[in-house]
Amino acid sequence: MDFFQAQHSLTTIEWILRSAVAYLFLVAVARMFGQRAISQLRLIDFVLALIIGNIIANPLADHEVSLNGSLITTLALVLFYIGTTYGTLKWNTFNKLVTGSPIPVIRNGEIIYNGMKKARIPMDLLLEELRRLQVKSVENIGLATWEASGQLSVFLKPEFEPVTAGALQLTVQPFDLPRTIIKEGKLLKEELLAVGKREGWVKAELNARFHTELEDVLLATIDGKDQLQVFYYR
């Protein structure tokens, strides 16, 4: 396969094949990284993603750069990454060295300025995170730490924590996650079978209770008590 090697020029088909191989290889690499949202990337994840992106981009833009070398280099980096990840799971000291430890920035309603300097976060960012977490006042916080993932974790003082049914010793129903059976006017038959209902039942319910047709429904869910909740196109 000549398109793997450095060439003076490549045909259109060879460029397409090179792109397809690189794309499938990156998909496989992403699977090896594991499931992690962009906001959850650690520093090592972010740096490695930038390096791999640059390595793979070169042979896709320059026909004189070998694709073979890029694939081998990327695979080696991924293996190093997997080894590092395994090390962080096995040795706590190594994990702290690679990923870092949470840094307290608020304790007992007081802002720890030295912690903010260590985490290198400005006051505006701290306040933004508190607003995102719907914390009204710094004084309500028992402990807030800046995590290695770049997010703020907040624990309220006991007197400011929301009252729960458990605290009031109330009897509650078991958790039941509603299933989506209609999405954008289309019936999701697999979900319907999972709840033991038929298409005819759904259409009859829509006509009798909601006076609407299937194609007019943006979203419909059903809970464990067979209660439908319908949202329309607006």
UniProtKB/TrEMBL annotation:
Domain YetF-like N-terminal transmembrane intervals: 15-79
Membrane topology label: Multi-pass membrane protein
Pfam families: DUF421 (PF04239), YetF_N (PF20730)
Primary localization: membrane
InterPro entries: DUF421 (IPR007353), UPF0702_alpha/beta_dom_sf (IPR023090), YetF_N (IPR048454)
One GO cellular component, as annotated: plasma membrane
Transmembrane region(s): 15-34, 41-61, 67-89
Keyword rRNA-binding: no
Source species, domain of life: Bacteria
Sequence similarity: Belongs to the UPF0702 family.
PANTHER family found in the cross-reference section: UPF0702 TRANSMEMBRANE PROTEIN YCAP, UPF0702 TRANSMEMBRANE PROTEIN YETF
Name of the protein: DUF421 domain-containing protein
Protein source organism: Halobacillus litoralis
